[in-house]
Amino acid sequence: MIRAEPMKHKFVDAFPERLESGVLYVALDFATMSHLCACGCGTEVVTPLSPLDWRLTFDGVTITINPSIGNWSLPCRSHYVIKQGLIHWAGDWSDEQIAEGRRRDLLAKRQKQAPSSSPNPIPAPATRRGILRRLRNWLKKFSAYSIVG
User: Could you tell me the pTM of the whole model?
Assistant: First the structure.
């Protein structure tokens, strides 16, 4: 059985010039996360946060990211899930599986972004930013107690 590896997190206003290995940086104002590839190759991985891309769950202590992170464009082709602050390795995908996954993602995005055809339209970016800013400010209250970061 493969042992899960820890992944710390830091909520930041901007990404640092040099990322630290084993740290997931979360910039809520930009709805974006960044980290060095978990395989150790040193490549920076940037993931957008949105209902159509990746979702972050913060339980007050740890972070979970959904869906998995598949670095198919990188030479390492690493594939993993970050769940409750731990990296769980997932299997490699074939080129056909990658193409099908990308096709499904694109189709889902097109369907959810159709103007007025969706009963639950995606909020405008300004609205999302307001919600993210409030969440970031709420999380900062706890930083003095070392719950985040």
Answer: 0.70
